[in-house]
């Protein structure tokens, strides 16, 4: 299975294609990979809504099952739910997100702010103010 057998015509012996090492199902991926996946999804749901109603239904189900204010991934899921609802009401975007929008999602969890994107602005007197948009 998954291993192709070819015959070396010059030598007349079968040559096996290189095999991919099996994935260890018992090891879990690092936690940051889940966060990165949620960050990507939080960018995507604010850009467009799936046209396929079945895919949209599964997406909503996935978000509602994972939304939880106690975990970092759950907070991203809750944000994605809100962002998806806004996108469904307002329609998809016609322009790509700005660099600042992308950075604001990558640098902090947008769940913690009422507006979807926020950037800390550091002042000269060593204070900062969060600007939301």
UniProtKB/TrEMBL annotation:
**One Pfam family, short name:** MyTH4
* Record-annotated MyTH4 domain positions: 1-106
Keyword terms of this UniProt record: Repeat
Database matches in InterPro entries:
MyTH4_dom, MyTH4_dom_sf
Gene3D superfamilies the UniProt entry points to:
MyTH4 domain (1.25.40.530)
Q: Which residues form a coiled coil?
A: none
Q: Name one GO cellular component term.
A: cytoskeleton
Q: Under which name does UniProt file this protein?
A: Uncharacterized protein CG43867
Q: Please report the organism this UniProt entry assigns to the protein.
A: Culex pipiens (House mosquito)
């Amino acid at each position: 299975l998954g291993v192709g057998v070819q015959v070396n015509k010059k030598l007349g012996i079968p040559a096996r294609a290189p095999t991919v090492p099996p994935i260890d199902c018992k090891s879990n991926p690092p936690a940051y990979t889940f966060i990165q996946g949620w960050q990507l999804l939080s960018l995507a749901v604010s850009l467009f809504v799936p046209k396929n109603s079945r895919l949209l239904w599964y997406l909503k189900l996935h978000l509602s099952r994972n939304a939880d204010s106690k975990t970092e991934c759950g907070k991203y899921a809750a944000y994605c739910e809100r962002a998806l609802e806004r996108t469904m009401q307002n329609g998809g975007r016609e322009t790509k997100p700005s660099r600042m929008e992308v950075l604001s999602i990558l640098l902090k969890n947008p769940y913690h702010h009422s507006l979807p994107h926020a950037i800390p602005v550091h002042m000269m007197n060593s204070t900062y103010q969060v600007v939301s948009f």
